[in-house]
Structure formats: C-alpha cells, structure tokens
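YM 10:42: Signal peptide protein sequence, as discussed on the call
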Amino acid sequence: MFGIGIPASGLIVRAEPIDAPEAVASGELDERSSKDNLLRRMTTDGIELTDDLSFPLPEPTFVSIDGEPVAEEDAKRALEKIAGRHGVKRFVRDSVVAPISVNTDSIKNDAGERIGHFIDVAFVVYQSIEQIRKSDALDDFKSDPDSPEQTVEVADSDSADELDKNKTRQLTDEELAAAGVELDGKYETLGHLQLPLLGKVVVRGVARARRSIWSADDESAPIILTWLLDSRFAADDPEPDSISNQWRAIERNSVGEKQLGPPHSYAGMGGYVAITPVPGEEQASMVEMRFVIHEPHDWFSGRNLLRSKLPILIQDRVRNLRRELQD
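YM 10:58: structure's back
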C-alpha cells in the first residue's frame, strides 16, 4: 500500500523474516551489518541515473541511517517545517484528507537538460509502527511467489489492459542462478516488476528491495525499507521477453489497440520509505518516501508530465491508504 502508484509499488521485501528465530539469533533482520549497505550507498554515493550522473538521496528526517531517532526537539522543528503553511495541528490530524507534503525537483545533467526527478513525500497515518508492522499496510514489501496475481508475464502476448497494471513477482531460483546472483541475508528480496507510467511508458526490470532498519527487539522502533532497480540485471540491448531492466513505449497499432514498442536499456530508479513516530502522537506514524526516477527524453518528448501528474496521483493513493487503515 505504501507504493501509492509510484516505483515503490510492488516491492517485495518480506515484512517478517522467513525464519524468524534463526534471523533474530544471527542478527539478520535488517541490512545494518551488511558490507553492502544499500541505504548508506543511496544516501552517500547516490543512485546512478546515467553513466556520468548519480543523485544522492537526503537522509531520512526523523531517524538516522543507523536507526537512531533524532532528538525530540529536532523532530518537532522538522515537523513544523514539513507541515508548512498547513500548520502542525492540521497536518497531523486523524483525517483521510489531512494535508500531504509532496515536493518534486528536476535532476539535470551538466548541460542543464532534465534527465530525472527527485520526489519527496511525507504524510501521517493513524496507526502506530507496531500496528503497521502487523497489518496489511506493508503488503508492497511482502510477496507470495505462488500467488497468481503477483505473476509478471514479460511476453508481448499480454493483453492491452495488462499494460496499465503494476505487477511484481519474486525471481525464481533458476533466474537467480542464471544471473549468478545470491540474496544477501534474510532481509533482501529480488523481484521482477512492471511499472506503467501515465499510460505512455512501461518500465520492467529487477528491483532489489531490503529491510534497512527493522528492529528485532522493539516493534515500535522506526523502520526503513529501501529498493533499487538492480544494475546486475542491466543489458545494453535487452530482449523483449527477458527480465533485463528496460523501458518500452506504449503505442497504438493500426486499429488503435495498445501495444509495446521496442525495448530500451534502463537504469536509475530507487528510493526508501521511512516510518517513524509522530512527535507527541504515540498512535500516529510519519511516513516519509524519497525516490528518484530517471526520465529519458523519449518518454514524453521533453514534456514535464511526471512533475505535473505525480503529486495528484500520490494524493489520491495516500487518501486511499488512510481509508483502508481506518477499516
């Protein structure tokens, strides 16, 4: 549900470990002990959009990348800044239509050309972190590989209606072996995704998703979930029916039916979701989502559609999430 129609949608880290007792004993509930710390890499080296440009994500506002909550006074000041003209009282109220903070910035190359977007989203939901961990709210970070609705068919035989659907599935053991890739601990999942954008483009590829901060001892502690289009599945000339990272235009044939254009290599999509307690509101949680999208010029012929359309889409999805959490 925290996907809210953007690239985080459909990510498939399990919200609970596959083998909880063993995971707790070995300290592998999250990636903090990993040599390849995805959250740290995304906030220092950045996410690579092109061969010569990477974009570092800002660190979460209310929790460090090591999982330590910021000081209470600092958290209150940060909340006031995020609430802005709405004011804190209105921003944190228990309402489906409570304000949502959505900020988008263009990412430009050295020539001043827009090549992507940084999207920064913050909103409040009225469930504690402990309740969220136990609810269906993290369905986007769970997966049942045998579930039929999770299956992604990458062949061009998909019906036109299927091109407008977000889809994910876990990679099979055979696919992992063929790529020579192993999962890193019990906190990581690799999954194939299909992400349609504004009915004009479909991105397909393999997402690497992780529990970066996930306490084994305190279910009320902040959590951070990260995801990134995995460069190990990049291809200069991807095949249409492969799991390689790629984008394809949604076109119309001679009778007006939707079909996919030829595949193009794609990279540069990822982000994190940080969920922290709202200062002074024990039963409410702040959800902070930060991610980047690489936008090749050919997607929308240079028109800035994502910046104009995404805030509206995000607002609708957040309100739907709040309604579901009220049920």
